[in-house]
Amino acid sequence: MKRIFLTMLLLFTCAGTALADSAITINDPQVRLVPPNAENSAIFMVIRNQGAKDVKLVSAESPSAKAVELHTVTEEGGMKKMRPVLNIPIKAQGETVLKPGDYHVMLIGLKQPLMEGNEIPFTLKFDDGSSQSLKAPVRKIHMPMASH
Amino acid sequence: MQTNQYCRYPKHFVNFLFTVCISVTLIGSAIAGDGTHGLARKIGVAKGGDFKLDSISGPVDLKQFRGKVTVLYFGYTICPDACPTTLFALGEAMRGLKADEAAKIQPLFITLDPARDDVKRMDEYSRFFYPTMLGLRGSEAKLAAVAKQYGVLYAKQKVDSAANYVVDHSSFLYVIDANGKLVHSVPYGSSPLEIEAALRAALPHSHK
């Protein structure tokens, strides 16, 4: 009886999580490979919002870095400027691309060197109360994605 | 193209100029040969020139690379975006060249953040992107002088972040020919193939 109860509880928990997150999907997450002595890296991805309301990515966490922040890069006066942002908006029925030269999840103070093909776990939290835990493979990224 | 003067113009005009410059540069790369050099000279505002900086194995003088093509990039190792994007592309471009061509090209990565980047860190970081890439560092004053020679814009900027401060900087690869002359500025976002073409165009005639 106890086992059935636990199984039911597990099923409901999973279903609950799936329902809460159903409006937001994360595609193609990837972590930029950086030199072994580099302190920082970034996670890129496509965040899609199939819901009827705009949502915002408000924070990110990862056990692989001392701090995880939301950043963007702008071009101003001929210079690339990287700045922290409070959130990353994803419009209703829209998508936001986190890519080089643009929005990214910044990993600050990597706890160990990144290796190509390794997977970095991370969690994203949205302002609708939902969150998603994923893993992103480490890859070489040498082009500003989808910007040309 | 990358001087502060443009701040006075409306943003869309600057964007337009930027697009025109990139287009002209790309067309130049496609044409290759001496045409590229002519266009680059017209576009470039910086004169380039010699400099002496420090590497892990001692002082490096740009003059010692006469006879080789040199390609410079200015950035810093804590840079999370423009630097690794460009240095990966440069590494791919070097690997795309024939071995005898690549042997005649010296890539250099120069830090704009000497407070955090020592020569050891610059060396490890640079070699990761291409085995012969040298990481260079100098005093704030020396680096400011070299950056000015090449028209590099940069500014240390305190940010509300665990990174403490970032260095805003312009992002071009500077190609210097075998005579020490700045012949080409390759803009951020160029593909490895475009960089490869710019490097090959700067090689002495026997390689074209």
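Chain A touches chain B through 37 residues (CB under 8 Å).
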